Amino acid sequence: MTDSCKYCNNLLEDLHNEGLQCESCEKYVHLSCLKRGSTPGAFAGDVFFTFTCLECSDTDTECFSRENTKWFHILVLTFYHLNVHNKPLSRKGFYHWRMHVATFIDKNWNVLFDKSCKQKRNWMGTISGLLSVNSSTFFTRCRTFTEQGWWTLTYPKLTPHVQVKLSNELASLKLSLKSQNIYESDTVLLADIIKKSNISNEFTIMTISLPPLEHVKTEDSQTIDEISNSTITPINDNQTNLNPNKTNNKQKRALLPTFDSISVSDLDTHGPVKKKQKLNHSLTQSFDETATSSSQESTDSKESILPIKMEPAIKLLDPMCHYNTSLNNLFMLKRLNLKTKLLGGLREEPILSPYSNLYLKPYIHRDVKKTPHWLKIMAQIQLKANEKVKNYVLPSRSSIDYVYVQPSHIPAINSLCNQFFWPGIDLTECLQYPDFSCVVLYKKLIVGFAFIVPDVKVHENYISFIFVRPGWRNIGVGKFMIYHLIQTSMGKDITLHVAINNPGLFLYQKFGFKVEHVELNFYEKYLRNDSFESKHAFFCRLER
């Protein structure tokens, strides 16, 4: 783009300062200069609107109407928005097409599509089909995880506007080559188009350039760096004939280096090196590059960072090293002091909810008045252990923090659920709607949690789990969590199941829950036969 913004008179630039064109005066306006703050939906990089600026509008407001957007545009926009604002939901940068992509489109259907576009029964099949067909734009790695269906953008840093423009150029190039009976991979063609478009290298980082998981040994024992550089070959302008039947064996994925295939020049020769330490230095280099790029994107913590002298390190010959975060130099560079790791620190950054696209406060509530039995016992132990110390004073205690659920909480929450409820519980799904959650922390210890599932029926939410750790009960933790969940569901009924011998029923009744009926053997498929818990449950409802 070489036009200037109508509001600020600054130039528009792809990937940096993109904008919308007014259909009346045909002038552009930066997305950041819009008077309403953003486009409808506030999706990152969303320029797929018919726009009327403030001066040309009859209503003295900026007008937006969704274009007849194609499904390809919606998918690119969805992946880009998830990658920018909902990165914690991903698994190493990949998103599940049904759990993340389809759910996001379903919740934002009225904003992503025109009002005349109705939601058909097979719309999810359209998503899976387009992901499979457009292999140059979307990339999957099925064997990275134990299940299929995880996708990401091949060039995740390119904005949707640039992605669509490159896709149109790719389609035109394929038609011209087809008329000449020349056939080539879409990925190779797209790489050549990007090279000729002079896009900055920082935006052309490819997902498929990551270290591969499925490795095939090459005949001449090339290094991983050499093969990754030869995987995508740009089209030569003087090349007149491309034979699609010929395949280059050197473009196959490389095998992790073995002890016998590594030369002495590849070794880190700081000190004596044993035979078992002969590892490929290119592995170390790839990890250093990954750590450097990741550390630039992450937000620097205000905690003290230990000065570390980074030296060329030898990576273990581990097939899992490509996705083992404990071996990533990023965690060495961002090493906090031991006290902060064990006890935690203050949270200052807001949390972006993928459900409502709102920024949630770092803390729901911080309590320093309640003193549970567990803290009293710990204080007595400290006094007993230091009774010989003169004028010993107990250290100041931390606050009990009520926060929204985060990915770092899920492993501990799942462990508590499997220990105190029944095995097989996985609450990862709650990350999709953190607005309806409450996790109680003491430093980094999870004291309790409560979750509510929104919109199980029309105007009805369902409380799925409420738990308070033993030793922290009877001080009002559970009461505050229930109160918070009720406040998040204003105007909607709230339902739950509770065992008939669970004393928590009296707490629910204090908030106005009423028993509607008894469901026999409700917990039979969850509890073991030797469990003393009742398998029957009350179904309670709080009418609003």
Name its key features.
alpha+beta, Herpes Virus-1, eight-stranded mixed sheet, three-stranded antiparallel sheet, 14 helices, 17 strands
Question: How would you describe this structure to a colleague?
Answer:
The protein has 544 residues and is an alpha+beta fold. It folds into 4 domains: 1-67, Herpes Virus-1 (2-Layer Sandwich), CATH 3.30.40.10; 72-108 and 117-255, no CATH class; 261-336, no CATH class; 351-491, Aminopeptidase (3-Layer(aba) Sandwich), CATH 3.40.630. The protein has 14 helices and 17 strands. The strands form 5 sheets. An 8-stranded mixed sheet has the order 10-11-12-13-14-15-17-16, sandwiched between helices. Helix 5 crosses helix 6. Mean pLDDT is 76; it is low at 208-335.
Ranges where pLDDT stays below 50 over 5 or more residues in a row are 208-335
Describe the global form.
elongated
In helices, the fraction of residues equals 25-40%
Number of helices: 14
Distance between the termini: 53 Å
As a whole number of angstroms, the C-alpha radius of gyration is: 28 Å
Q: What is the arithmetic mean of pLDDT?
A: 76
Q: How many distinct domains?
A: 4
Give the beta-strand count. 17
Give the assembly state of these chains.
single chain
**Strand line-up in the sheet with most strands:** 10-11-12-13-14-15-17-16
Structural class: alpha+beta
Largest sheet: 8 strands, mixed
